[in-house]
Amino acid sequence: MKIEVRDIPPRAAWTLEQAGVHPLLARLFAARGIASADDLDASLARLLPPSDLRGAQEAAALLADAIAAQQRLCIVADYDCDGATACAVGMRGLKLLGAANVEYLVPDRVIDGYGLTAPIAERVAARKADMLITVDNGIASIEGVAAARAAGLKVLVTDHHLPGAELPAADVIVNPNQPGCAFESKSIAGVGVMFYVLLALRAELRARGAFDAANQPKLDTLLPLVALGTVADVVRLDANNRRLVAQGLRRIRAGQMPAGLNALFSVTGRQALKATTFDFGFALGPRINAAGRLADMTLGIELLLTDDAARAAELAATLDGINRERREIEGGMREHAMQVAESLFDSEEQEPPTALCVFDPDFHEGVVGIVASRLKDKLHRPTFVFASSGAPGREHELKGSGRSIPGFHLRDALDLIAKRHPGVLLKFGGHAMAAGCTITEEYFDTFEQALQQVAAEWLDAATLTRRLATDGPLAPEYRRPDLIDTLHHEVWGQGFAPPIFSEEVEVLSQRLVGEKHLALKLRHQGQPVDGIWFGHSAPLPPRVLLAFRLETDEWQGVRRVRFLVEGAQV
Questions:
Q1: Does 347 score more than 60 pLDDT?
Q2: How far apart are CA 77 and CA 159, in angstroms?
Q3: Inside any domain, residue 296
């Protein structure tokens, strides 16, 4: 590992300080591209306008006509947290804006797979729906959209994934990544796209005289769900996404949230009044995702839709139990997958291959993505983990989920493999850092070799070296619990990384806890401080360059600072 320090533009840091930003935050923000205090304005007025989002106005007109005609609307969701929150935002928002007949359908991860398929379109038509609305999917559903249109349905696709060479023949497509879209935030999540469609619909209904500005429905009540889905989907937190998340957090901290979110905070032992992006990413999001991985995402969506506190508490407890089961399955799979990966090379003598492909018949397809992410983090290689399909009649198929490292665009790699080896990939899709694909088991070796070849062509020694970007030394006067609270209060996440500091410290003592975590007593800037390195058991030298995050723990009523070690460079 190579620990690096981010560049801090001095003029930007000085400008932020002069505007009243705390000196430490000014330094952190400047290193992440913030040049002025205006960039930190998280007000709703600073959100990008819906008019910039291609298709939003046409979607608004289509929906307004449907509401006026009292047509039946059916949302086809996805089975992850982004899809669940997008569905809940769509359901709640459309009802707020006057839609009387709105329902939803969630594909089954095992039987249906990802996206709008022809059988799903037929099921929507069988429900006597007039319009099908996709959320967080649909941009690659050529056949599914065609089947829906053939069945007489109007089709509105709302998605954020990268489109392929052909777009589906929907009535309207809203996706910032479609050709010709000028919307600046290409990283908006699926839930954000649906929220923007609702903003455009409200404006359209207002123009039609359905209500005036003073009495229009308040869509900001949906922002807590938008914030959760945005963070949980690990999209880049550009300026617009940070504003959406900040607005959602603001309402949650004020106690203004759906009953389901409140129940999730309770079941995870987190405090909603002090909600952070970490709560979304590591507590609430995983429990929603667990429903789609091991059970039925209907549980997650129902939790986000209910206004009954008792029902919400019951559903949250169920999801918490499913998440515990998911962790157990994932833990066993991760250990086995690591053994398989390490069997591909001599872990003591050799570097890992340039890309990893791991498959075992006992793997559960619901958690292959998480395991791929853990392997990628551990070995710093583009990684695919495959499991046998559980769909009837498709037992010969393997479903793979991939995670990548900076410098290796995973979806582009799959596209190249598809061109070089026609027929190997039954289907694929995704982003630069995360993608999925389906292959037949007989082609596993072919896929593995093809991925290795692309990785060998695209990656060099510098890219394959793990680099940890940090914010440099931490001044001792900033090692305070109240300042850590201030840091945690800000919006951090993908593309706007949470603060990680780095400097040489003295290791006073170290011991293993729980057999796999290293508890440390350190001397930092001449003063003692506790540290913990989770998942690391190898001892450290007496002096070492550490990269660490800050947290507080409490002992006998006293809050103390603790370093959470992220890496070491000896």
A1: no
A2: 10
A3: yes
